Amino acid sequence: MTDSNFRVTEDALGEVTHFDNAPNWIYEVDNPYLHGAYAPTMDEIAADGLEVTGELPADLYGAYFRNGPNMIHKPPGHYHPFDGDGMVHAVYFRDGKASYKNSYVETNARILEREEGKAIWPGVMERFNYSLPEFPIKDNCNTDVTLFAGKLMPTWYNAGIPYKMDPLSLENMGEFDLPGRARRNKMSAHNRVDWNTGEMLFMDYGDEAPFMTYGVANPDGSLRQEVEIELPGPRLPHDLGFSTNYTILHDLPFFHDMDVLRKHGRRVVDFHKEIPARFGIIPRYGASQDIRWFECEPCFILHVSNCWEDGDWVVMDGSRSTNPKPRVDTDCGELTHMMAYMVNQANNYRWQFNLKTGEVREHNIDDLNTEFNKTNQLFHGVQSKFAYHQRIPTWAEGARTLQFSALVKYNNETGQYTKWDYGEGVFGSEVAFAPVKGATTHGDEDDGYLINMVIDSNTWKSEALVFDAKDITQGPIARVTLPHRVPAGFHCSWGRGEIIYA
Question: Which of 66, 275, 340, 359 is packed most tightly, with the most Cβ within 10 A?
Fold first, then answer.
């Protein structure tokens, strides 16, 4: 199955393209995040024996899962990529062969909107509607996808209800519940699974006190503990990190004004550069009073690469932004605010916290504009040096959110990197690290493969690329032709074959 397409018009932000597997209503909406590489795909398909250029390694064993927005119904107001219904795409690797499946995430909101035949919830740019069930904007579960306790767990950026899917069939299985939680069943977009213990470390946040909770789930999917974390007010943390014995929580100066939300029903997020960034280090199974806060230079962090302990120090690597809401030089009318918010400006960075003296050290690892950083999950929580980022062209270079131009492999000990460009008009996505079959932490940290999906705007075809993580400069060692166009999306994860094929 392949896409036919033809150009229908152009706008100030680029070409608008018609696809046979996109909803017709998108051509009635002048929004750059509903066209081209972002155009939603409506088809849910399964295909085996995919065409491979090159050769898939025999020890590539598992599945690449990626989540992203695929809006079903015409939005009632301005569309933002965070509004699109969640869709999980999966590429399975086994015995040198590849297959593909994709499925919408059957959220409670999607089910109700399907029954009504239209969009019900407003988008994040619209006035919140607190009369609607569960959330004043739609919890669409379109942001991340994690393999935990034998199930896929898609999550939403705004701390919503986690759902579960079968990792092989992508069958939807309802809400992912942790019985015994004191608060409602909500989690942030990014929760961390420790592959070495099987535990999941998670957090939740909201507009009412307690503004954050932190918890640990057992490998069998039961709740071990959950504690309240005191914050000065509502925050919008996106990620957390963990070492062997500690979890690192974020209180960052990029948040909304509750008075504006209460009075006008809109969430307006601003960067408060006069307020320090704070990082709370809590023992993995610690109580609320055990957390220690460290102040750093004002910044916002979307994604953590890895954390570990080094004597009295806790080290955290990640991508840091000192301008999370930059101005853009294009007048997009009422969409200008969204376009500014969706510009990624970040670079590879390191923080160090001394648990004995309280000292903080922080510095750039590099100044290249990169984000969507991933590492070998076997080494999460222990000292590592490699991180795999996406190169994000600047606004001046003509790029838009999620239109990544290159894969970057960092050695965070030296700050040096290698890079592979996807090519003119080809947009990459976040990579997952796939350890070789049977790998452990006793082997080389980069002994494995990097998997991601790309969309080629020259042909509007999509591929899954397989890189040798030891040397990305040689380009993909295998290219898997996907059976249909896969739109730009958000986050991915790797499911080890030892788990999903068991």
Answer: 66
CB 281 within 8 A of CB 225: no
Q: pTM here?
A: 0.94
The owner of tokens 């070998």 is 376
> Which among 294, 308, 279, 289 has a CA at the least distance from the CA of 356?
294
**H or E stretch covering 212:** strand 212-217
Q: How far apart are CA 199 and CA 20, in angstroms?
A: 43
d(CA 109, CA 218) in angstroms, rounded, equals: 28
Tell me the torsion sign for CA atoms 322, 324, 325, 329.
positive
* 302-336 residue pLDDT tens: 999 999 999 999 999 999 999 887 666 665 666 66
- Decide if 365 contacts 412 (C-beta within 8 A): yes
Contacts of 61 (CB under 8 A, 6+ apart): 93, 94, 437, 496, 497, 498, 501
Q: How far apart are CA 344 and CA 316, in angstroms?
A: 20
- Residue 451 CB neighbours (<10 A): 29
C-alpha separations of 268 from 133, 252, 264, 374, 401 in Å: 22, 15, 10, 29, 20
Sign, CA torsion 494/496/499/500? positive
Q: Which residue has the tokens 């408060």?
A: 272
Q: How far apart are the C-alpha atoms of 244 and 48, rounded to whole Å?
A: 40
d(CA 418, CA 368): 12
- Sheet containing 416-421: give its strands across: 370-374, 386-391, 406-411, 416-421
Element (H, E) at 426: strand 426-427
Helix, strand or coil for residue 298? coil
Measured in whole angstroms, the distance separating CA 380 from the mean position of its chain's CA atoms is 17
Q: DSSP secondary-structure letter at 176?
A: -
Q: What is the pLDDT of residues 368-393, one digit of tens each?
A: 999 999 999 999 999 999 999 999 98
Buried-state track 462-480, b at ≥16 Cβ within 10 A, e below 16:
bbbbbbbbeebeebbbbbb
* Three-state SS letters, 133-158: CCCCCCCCCCCEEEEECCEEEEECCC
Asked if 214 and 227 touch (Cβ cutoff 8 Å), the reply is yes
